[in-house]
């Protein structure tokens, strides 16, 4: 592709990045704290595209521009340079896909083919009052496994996540833990027991209320510990604005 075509692709890329960063679409790709850098990157890409076109028009002789526009060929030796292959414009298709299509967040398929990413917390701060107590998946799982449920005894908790089913149909409540971007997202899983709905669809977002149980299992992928929650009630809920959980790594 010639420089003008490269500038067009660069401008479209910057526009796509700006669009994603100015809406909640960027949360499908990177963690929330990276939004300012994403917006700045979009501005830089678009500015670079404009500067490329300006520099190209300023440095290229006027007669060469007219000749190239007339015969559709580049300005090689003797005017015999060949036209760039049109297939190179296929590079633009992923950009239009980013602009026009909002990809779904990683869900149950990724969760059940990836080992749990549960990590030992730095500590276990005293839980606030509340009944039921709102907790995220990683906080409950960390306390259940590494604190052996001591801080969860005699407490009802409320947790939200999406449903994933293993090969035997056993249900798990999952959130994808995020370090930087969706490419490094890993699941944290909680097994569900007790009054679990008879019919559950994978990727359905569910809010459950329940209590700690000593029951746990090993993740078939990687062998990590998966704690269980004794469910007393549950209800489907809309997907959250930010589908990824960043709390596990601060």
From TrEMBL:
Region (Disordered): 61-82
Record keyword Nuclease present: no
Membrane-traversing stretches: 36-55, 87-106
InterPro entries, A to Z: DUF1980, DUF1980_C
Signal peptide: none
Domain DUF1980: 144-244
Keywords per UniProt: Membrane, Transmembrane, Transmembrane helix
NCBIfam families: TIGR03943 family putative permease subunit
Descriptive protein name: TIGR03943 family protein
Organism: Streptomyces javensis
């Amino acid at each position: 592709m010639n420089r003008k075509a490269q500038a067009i692709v660069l401008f479209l890329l910057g526009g796509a990045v700006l669009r994603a960063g100015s809406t909640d679409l960027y949360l499908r790709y990177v963690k929330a704290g990276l939004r300012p850098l994403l917006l700045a990157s979009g501005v830089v890409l678009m500015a670079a595209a404009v500067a490329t076109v300006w520099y190209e028009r300023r440095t290229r002789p006027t007669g060469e521009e007219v000749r190239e526009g007339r015969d559709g060929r580049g300005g090689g030796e003797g005017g015999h340079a060949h036209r760039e292959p049109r297939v190179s414009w296929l590079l633009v298709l992923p950009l239009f896909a980013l602009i026009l299509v909002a990809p779904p967040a990683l869900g149950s398929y990724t969760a059940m083919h990836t080992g749990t990413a549960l990590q030992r917390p730095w500590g276990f701060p005293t839980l606030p009052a509340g009944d039921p107590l709102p907790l995220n998946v990683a906080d409950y799982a960390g306390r259940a496994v590494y604190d052996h449920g001591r801080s969860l005894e005699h407490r009802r908790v409320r947790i939200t996540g999406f449903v994933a089913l293993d090969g035997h149909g056993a249900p798990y409540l999952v959130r994808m833990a995020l370090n930087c971007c969706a490419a490094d997202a890993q699941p944290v899983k909680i097994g569900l027991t007790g009054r679990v709905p008879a019919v559950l669809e994978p990727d359905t977002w569910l809010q459950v209320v329940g209590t700690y149980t000593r029951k746990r299992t090993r993740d078939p992928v990687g062998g990590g510990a998966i704690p269980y929650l004794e469910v007393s009630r549950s209800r489907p809920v809309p997907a959250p604005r930010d589908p990824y959980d960043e709390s596990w790594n601060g």
